[in-house]
Amino acid sequence: MEKYEHNLQIMKSAWVREIIFGLENVEKGMSDVVIESILRSQKLKKVAQPLSSPVIKQIYDTFLKDLKAKTIKQIDIVIRAALEYDSSNIDELMEKYRDKYLRFDITAQNLKTKHKNYDEIIEYQLKTFRHRVVETHQMMKIPDANTYGDIIKGTYPEFKHAKKELFKQVRYTQRAINLIIKDISILKVPEVLKTPVINVLKMGYKTTLKYLTDTCELIYNS
Asked: Which of 24, 41, 49, 178 could anchor a disulfide with 195, C-beta 3.0 to 4.6 Å?
């Protein structure tokens, strides 16, 4: 751990900034998204505004209230697994940390486990976990890094490779979201929340993807 502590601290700080940025932007835009969702799904223009407030609170309490703390817990699990990774034991690590990782996964915790699409969505969440463990292992070993940009460019010398890996990871998230959209009955939330939740999830995904893409471009253009 001590050997890689410098890089891991830089990486974790960058990932926490990403979480904070995403949360702040989702919270800013959530009110408009929820009101629009209510208008589209229920056609209740006169009650959209008063109805939106309790819906926003429920979505916040269910998905966003503990998101930062739980995502940081996931980051810690990724780092722990990456430190144990030796290029041949990824399957064993997935088995070892699977339940702990999913315990802090907001998406997984709000799905009906008996639903026909549950296992497939969980598989996408675990593919994201697997990808992050391998990538974190590579990144923490980059020598003479002073910034997150140094670590990224040390891991992926060319922009096209960094972008390819970025899209490989977010593709799993997109596929999971698409499955939820395909059949929203999988969500373990009240009916009135389902469409607004989907739209908040889509907004969060787009915001995060833009942040990651912009950050990646900034690193390689500096």
From this structure: 41
